[in-house]
Amino acid sequence: MLKSYFKSENLLECGCDEAGRGCLAGPVVAAAVILKPDFINENLNDSKQLSEKQRNELRPIIEKNALAYSVFFVNNLEIDRINILNASFLAMENAVKALKITPQLLLIDGNRFRTSLSIEYCCFVKGDAKYQTIAAASILAKTYRDEYMEGIDKEYPEYKWRKNKGYPTIEHRTAIKNFGITKYHRKTFNLLATPSLFMDEM
């Protein structure tokens, strides 16, 4: 069972996470979630530990039981302009800004964060496997991004984005080699290298 809060149930704690950082194509997507203090769901977990079916089933439950949530996309052009780390920070910051309620504390998945927000934050390595709010954010970020990639798969079916979601699979890299790049590819990434460790994010 994941923890319901980090400091206090009386604080408005917001979980933040992103999806798509290691992809070769498409946006990086971040979500920010403030859950109801009494919300408990035994199935809630890091999105990478769940099946696609489980994530899709949890998404409406999270949205219904959130005091506030938002999702923000940073596209591949912006990723190429400012780099993926800064794009991830930007996506999380803008997801927080879009919330209808201002949180008092941000729980960030990862080991670092940079922001212009005047809100206290704490970073947690593998935080999506520790806190409900971060796990909820990871599920929203992942499902919204997957949905987007499935949509652009119709435009470029040869890259099999419906299946690989833009991650550096052998199949995806082979398609890049055979067909070249699209307007959705990240040109600053090593698109033809050996498939990277980021494949485990799928």
What does this structure look like?
The protein is built from 6 helices and 5 strands; from the N terminus they run E-E-H-E-H-H-E-E-H-H-H. Helix 2 crosses helix 3. The protein is 35% helix and 17% strand. Strand 1 and strand 2 (28-35) form a beta hairpin. The protein has a 5-stranded mixed β-sheet, sandwiched between helices. The chain has a single domain (13-201), classed as Nucleotidyltransferase, domain 5, CATH 3.30.420.10. It has 202 residues and is an alpha/beta fold. The chain has helices at residues 52-65, 76-82, 84-97, 132-153, 161-164, 170-179, and strands at 13-19, 28-35, 66-74, 105-109, 120-124.
- What fold name stands as the CATH topology? Nucleotidyltransferase, domain 5
User: Which structural class do you get from the secondary structure elements?
Assistant: alpha/beta
The total domain count is 1
Major sheet characteristics? 5 strands, mixed
Question: Count of helical segments?
Answer: 6
How far apart, in Å, are the first and last alpha carbons?
23 Å
Helix fraction?
25-40%
| Percentage of β-strand residues | 15-25%
Find the CATH superfamily: Ribonuclease H-like superfamily/Ribonuclease H
Shape by Cα distribution: globular
Number of strands: 5
Secondary-structure arrangement, i.e. CATH architecture: 2-Layer Sandwich
Mean pLDDT: 93
Q: H/E order of the elements?
A: EEHEHHEEHHH
Rounded to the nearest angstrom, the radius of gyration is 17 Å
Instruction: Indicate the CATH class.
Output: Alpha Beta
> Strand order within the widest sheet?
3-2-1-4-5
**Stretches with pLDDT under 50, minimum 5 residues:** 195-202
